[in-house]
């Protein structure tokens, strides 16, 4: 019997190979706390509800508003959706079980997503299949909650972005503040499929114009010869 969990895809890029993006000005990042380790979010000064770091403004979800044991309760989803609609973030940052809330968000809202060690990634991509938001997944190669081979397969099939962290499991421990900043800027600036399609459209338009010009020239030449 074929096992779905034997499926895999191309290896993602390593943290050291992430291309540094130009820092976005006036970008808004919503950080969904449940599922994110303290090692990840301490840089965003969780004592404050809102913090600006360079050109990026962070909003941290409030303690007590989301059920940490079951993030998919009606009240948790309502609070999250209300926050998204009010804040209108450019990027949503979540991790582990917080991916379940991202699934709910993507049902109604289009946004760039940065996920750290997500669970239930299948659900995220199933909801996103029609919208094609930019989704960047950062995953530990030793994560036992969701195996890296499965993550590689899902990211590849969805044509999204995977960054792999060597010698790291489900709990992220970044000692260097700049790593988080690098990943946030990458998720805000990485090219999407939509931009590539726009380029191909412009190319097709230029080709059609050149064809029409050549046709008109040939017609004028034939007319002059007949005269």
Short précis:
The protein has about 230 residues and is α/β, with parallel strands linked by helices. It is built from seven helices and eight strands; from the N terminus they run E-E-H-E-E-H-E-H-E-H-E-H-E-H-H.
| Radius of gyration from CA coordinates | 22 Å
- The H-level CATH homologous superfamily, spelled out, is Alpha/Beta hydrolase fold, catalytic domain
* Quaternary organisation: single chain
Uncertain ranges: 42-47, 193-208
CATH architecture: 3-Layer(aba) Sandwich
SSE string, helices as H and strands as E: EEHEEHEHEHEHEHH
CATH class: Alpha Beta
User: Which range does the strand content fall in?
Assistant: 15-25%
Mean pLDDT: 79
The number of domains: 1
Separation of the first and last Cα atoms:
77 Å
The largest sheet has its strands arranged as 1-8-7-6-5-2-4-3
How does the helix and strand content classify structurally?
alpha/beta
């Amino acid at each position: 019997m074929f096992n779905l969990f034997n499926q895999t895809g191309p290896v993602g890029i390593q943290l050291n190979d992430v291309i540094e993006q130009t820092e976005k000005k006036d970008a808004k990042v919503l950080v969904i706390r449940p599922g994110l380790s303290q090692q990840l979010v301490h840089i965003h000064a969780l004592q404050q509800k809102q913090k600006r770091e360079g050109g990026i403004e962070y909003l941290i979800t409030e303690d007590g508003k989301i059920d940490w044991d079951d993030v998919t309760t009606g009240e948790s989803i309502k609070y999250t959706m209300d926050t998204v609609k009010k804040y209108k973030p450019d990027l949503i940052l979540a991790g582990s079980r917080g991916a379940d809330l991202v699934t709910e968000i993507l049902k109604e809202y289009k946004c760039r997503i940065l996920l750290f060690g997500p669970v239930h990634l299948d659900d995220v991509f199933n909801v996103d299949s029609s919208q094609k938001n930019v989704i960047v997944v950062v995953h530990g190669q030793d994560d036992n909650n969701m195996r890296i081979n499965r993550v590689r397969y899902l990211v590849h099939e969805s044509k999204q972005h995977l960054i792999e962290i060597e010698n790291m499991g489900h709990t992220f421990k970044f000692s260097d503040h700049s790593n988080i900043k690098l990943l946030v800027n990458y998720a805000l600036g990485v090219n999407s499929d939509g931009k590539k399609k726009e380029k191909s459209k412009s190319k097709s338009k230029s080709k059609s114009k050149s064809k029409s010009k050549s046709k008109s020239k040939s017609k004028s030449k034939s007319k002059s010869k007949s005269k």
